Amino acid sequence: MNEYMKKIREREVPRGTAALWWMGQMGLLVKIGGTVLCVDYFATETPDRQVPPPVPAAETEGVDAFLGTHDHLDHIDHEAWRIWNRCCPKAKFVFPALCREAVYGDGIPADRCIGLTDGESCRIGDVTVRAIAAAHEFLNRDPETGLYPCLQYIIEGDGVRIYHAGDTLRYEGMLLKLQAMGRIDAAILPINGRDGVRYRNNLIGNMTFQEAADLAGEVKAGTVIPGHWDMFAENLGDPEAFADYFGAKYPGQARVVKPRYMEPMEISDRV
C-alpha cells in the first residue's frame, strides 16, 4: 500500500473529529470513524498540470468511496475511475445522477454507482453524503430529467460536518440550503474566480476569493480551506489574498488553513 494511504488507514480518528488531506485543486481525502472518502481527486498525469498527483491512481487502496462533483477532468477523472474500479473492488462511486452513463462507460458496475441530485443523500460506512446543486457558472438543470450536472457535498458523521463546494458560484437560495444542514465544521471552497478570457477558453468559472470568503463567513464554518488555486497556470487563485480578506472581514471567526499536499488537517466539532 502507498505510504500516504497506509498512514491514512492506520490513523485513529476519535469520535467528534475528522481528518482531511488535500490532494491539490479540489481533491480531498476525508476520514471519519473508519470510513475513507476521496473527493474530486485528479490523479492522471497531464502535461499542463503544475503539480504531480500526490498518490498514483493505482495506489489508492483502502478508499471506501470515490466522489465526483461534476464531469470535468479535474473532478471526475475517468482514467483514474477506471483504475479505482479495479484496485478498490468494494468502493462505491458517487456522482451527479446526470453523469450516470459516462460513469457506466468506465466499467463500474451499477451496484457500486450512486447517482445523486439536489436534496438527495447516501450512506457510506460511518458517513452520510448529502448533495446540493452547484452553479458552475450556471445551474444548468436538465429540462427533461430535472437533474443538475454539478453538485456540492455535505459529508457528515460522528458529529462532524464537512462542506465540499466542488465548483460553484453563489446562487439565490444556496446559503439557505447550507444553513439548513446545521453547523459546518470545515469548508473547502474554490477561489479561482472567473473572467471573460477564461470563459472564452472554456475555463468555466467559480467564486472569486472575496465571494468564497463571504460564503464561509456567512455559514460560520469552523475551519476554512481555500481550494482550486494551484493546478493550471491559466486558472490559478490566491490563497493568501483569500486568508487576508477573510481575516479582515471576519476576524477571529474561523481558522483559515492554506492546505499543503497530503498534510493531515484535524477537524473537530469544537474547532
Describe this structure in words.
It is a single chain. By secondary structure, this protein is α/β, with parallel strands linked by helices. It contains 7 helices and 14 strands. Helix 6 crosses helix 7 (239-249). The mean pLDDT is 97.
Radius of gyration: 17 Å
Kindly report the average pLDDT value. Answer: 97
Percentage of residues in DSSP E strands: 15-25%
The level 1 CATH classification is: Alpha Beta
Briefly characterize the structure.
The chain is of the alpha/beta class and 271 residues long. The protein has helices at 3-10, 78-87, 100-104, 174-180, 196-200, 209-219, 239-249; strands at 17-22, 28-32, 35-39, 65-67, 92-96, 113-116, 121-124, 127-133, 151-157, 160-164, 186-190, 223-227, 255-256, 265-268.
Which short descriptors sum up this protein?
271 residues, alpha/beta, 7-stranded mixed sheet, 7 helices, globular
Write the topology of this structure:
Blueprint: H1 3-10, E1 17-22, E2 28-32, E3 35-39, E4 65-67, H2 78-87, E5 92-96, H3 100-104, E6 113-116, E7 121-124, E8 127-133, E9 151-157, E10 160-164, H4 174-180, E11 186-190, H5 196-200, H6 209-219, E12 223-227, H7 239-249, E13 255-256, E14 265-268
Parallel strand pairs: 3-4, 4-5, 5-6, 10-11, 11-12, 12-13
Antiparallel strand pairs: 1-2, 1-14, 2-3, 7-8, 8-9, 9-10
Helix pairs in contact: 6-7
